[in-house]
Amino acid sequence: MAEHDHENRSEDYHKNSLSLWGAVSLGTGVMIGAGIFALTGQVAQLAREWFVLAFVCGGIIAGFSAYSYVKLAKAYPSAGGIAMFLSKAYGKGSVTAIFALLMYFSMVINESLVARTFASYTSQLIPFDGQWLIPLLAVALLLFAFLINILSNEFIQTFSFFMAFVKAAGLVVLAAGGLWASGVQFESISVLPEEATTGGVLAGIALSILAYKGFTTITNSGGEIVEPKKNVGRAIIISLVMCTGIYVLVTLAVGSSLSISEIVKAKDYSLAEAAKPVYGEVGLWVTVAFAIVATVSGVIASAFAVSRMLAMLTNMKLVPHSHFGMPGTIQKHTLVYTIVMAMVLSVFFDLSRIASLGAIFYIVMDIAIHWGVLRHLRHEVNANIYILLSAIVLDIIVLVAFVWIKWNSDPLVIWASLIGMALIAAGEVLFLRKKR
Length: 436
Hints:
Layout: H1 20-34, H2 36-47, H3 51-75, H4 82-90, H5 94-122, H6 133-149, H7 153-181, H8 198-208, H9 216-219, H10 228-257, H11 260-265, H12 270-315, H13 330-348, H14 351-381, H15 385-409, H16 411-435
């Protein structure tokens, strides 16, 4: 692995190659792609009539979480982002590697989630039962994302910025039109929430957090953003504010067009279903077109960020690496590994289980970030103890509720999560012990 040591990192990362708005477009690209299109129906299934509130609460919790990342990014801007943050808090050992890999796999899961969402929406345009096409379409999107990601950073940021603008503007227009056409009558969220439970609402909030976690991808490109100590934090805040506003508008529009049972029935493509009563078949086509734009840009942005984080872990010698005879840099190799794993997940898992695994992995890692700042870096990064404690408590509450709901409804998800975390931990401990 000598040819891929630290001195060659310049081949992987290009300083000042991403502008502030390029970073914002990467963050919103991941958030909007995974969030509103993939998760609206999933969150409604759990939170029922409170699903709009669940997205609002998810945004608030993401805001508390973002505090730690903004403080860390200001102090330690790095192309490795979360991997570097964890190493600052816990050192370059197994704890850092385990939690960084939880984040890595949650992001890979996110890519497969968005790819399946792309396939589900695209299949609505097929005049026959095209369920067998969904895995194929998902794999095709991931392959396209790989091809885009081997191009230059400048091209990726231009592509992401254009796509982010198109999908954000399109969603606002569709949502505003839906609210206007319905006379702002919220069919599914204005009724007494008889079926909603406290646990279900909290579980819905936990799942909605996935719609916001895309802001963390910005930290993984910190070493490439212009004036990172200033702009990484700005990009995170701008992305969260933009996406929260869009999510609230769109979920209100969906709630004005469909009942909860209709949203849940069409949970993999609920936005397209919501467009039919308002816009008819034209609305379906337009919504699917925007869904395709959102999911394509989401996968591209996610692959861009997560491959860099894994490359940083490799450079830190915290994970094993083999280039299997492939030419190029470590980051190109990690891009290949990332895309291949996302392809496997998108073929063998449905949207609900993919989203659940991603939520559990991410929230566990998020707690580790806040705890690391609280215990080891609070004074160094000048962080407020009460905000850190609030972030930890909020994460724990929604995680416990989510695990409880899933244990009673789909225990396979919990077992898969536990086995996955155990394998990651055991693999890292054995690798690092052998390396010593």
